[in-house]
Amino acid sequence: MRKFWIVLLSLGLMVAFTMPVCAADVKFSGSYVVQGYYEDNRKLSDPEGSSLSNMWQRLRVQTVFQVQEGLKLTTRFDAMEKIWGAARSSSVTGANTGSISAENENIKFDDVFVTFAIPIGTIDAGYMNYGAWGTVYGNSTETTNAPRVRYTYEQGPIILQLAYDKNEGSKGYSSTGPAGTPANTDDDFEKYNLYFTYKWNTGSAGVQIQYNLDSSNSDAAATYTASNGYRAKYWAFYPYVKATFGRVYLEAELGFAFGDYKEYISANNREDQDMESWRGYIMANVDLAPAYVGALAFYASGDDPGTTDKYEGGLKTGPDFNPCLILMNYDLGRWNGVMGGANGVSTTYNMDNVFGAQLFAGIKPIPRLDIKASVTYAKLNENPSATTRLHDKDLGYEADITATYMIFDNLSYMVGFGYLFAGDAYEGASHTSKVEDDFLLTHKLTLTF
């Protein structure tokens, strides 16, 4: 019996020492967020009657498996992303949509991609985020995770990247015909990207050049209607700069897209539509330690309903851009839904057709406490549609104040108050309907690791 155990132990040791190493190093990072709201009048209705109160949370974990030198696998998932007390749901439609309180039944993976070195540069391949570039304006790290292949080359202060994004539409078969029936059209959405970045000690600058080929609306000829049977083919350019000049920090970004927004496959008396869209953002922050002051302005062109041969919208502010506690705030819009809407005009995060400007100031009386106040003005650029002719385009003024305290280096607690003096744009085309103001109380606990 003793010999049997000696032989068994020897075999076990041989197997253990001869097995290849699957992952030499594993690194975890992520965050846990809990945030509570009380919002007085989300619909901006008069009289008031649309208050909301809830708590939401999210656990996010990113894992990097360093398989060997020059080879790694990266994953990121969100778990228990829900409003406190909400029922579980097997539906995945709750992801990144407004006014959804249910939790996905399973853990939701956003990123899974492999990174490997080649003689010149590195390659990433798999599901990853493709919505982050330049400044926070226009970014969408929360909502744009999709298939991508990316090549990166770095040499000193220069970074060059090439990326190909592909969102499958047809998947090789017909969604209406018998199982296995070949699709009549290729309705994928492809993006070809070139990134160039130059970095220096006090800043960076770069440009993204993107070609978009969107065939997601090129349905079969038998189903052509006014809303399908076309492709979009357009270019987009996104230059940015970030720089520090003494006490002043400055960042700015532009976006311009042009080309064919609707190129019909079969005319059938339908008019093609060109694309000519703009967006821009600038922010300056002056460090007057322990205080700071600054200002920002942003613009995203909206589609003019009077120019049917041209589309001027589409380039949006991005869900990562949260200038206010109420207006254009991603988390608030996701969990509480759109704002207004009673008279046909509503707003939320990630929008075009908007102009805004903000003044802000803050003070750090002690290193761990940051108190900030801001005043923001926003308006629409164009009428929402040919039938909704606004008599006023002002979205209103918002005053916010927040206090953030670092309990530990990786744990912060924020309390905030926001008041929106609602503008008459939310009245829509009506001259008799009234809107009422909205205010918000919020607190947020954030753990990073």
In short:
By secondary structure, the chain is mainly beta. Helices cover 5% and strands 53% of the residues.
Description of the molecule:
The protein has 449 residues and is mainly beta. It has a single domain (23-448), classed as Porin (Beta Barrel), CATH 2.40.160.100. The chain has 2 helices and 23 strands. The chain has helices at residues 2-18, 330-336; strands at residues 25-39, 52-68, 71-83, 88-89, 103-104, 108-117, 122-129, 145-155, 158-167, 189-200, 203-214, 230-245, 248-264, 273-288, 291-300, 310-311, 339-340, 346-347, 354-363, 369-379, 394-408, 411-422, 438-448. The chain has an 18-stranded antiparallel barrel. A two-stranded parallel ribbon has the order 4-5. Strands 17-18 form a two-stranded antiparallel sheet. Residues 1-21, 92-100 and 171-184 have low confidence and may be disordered.
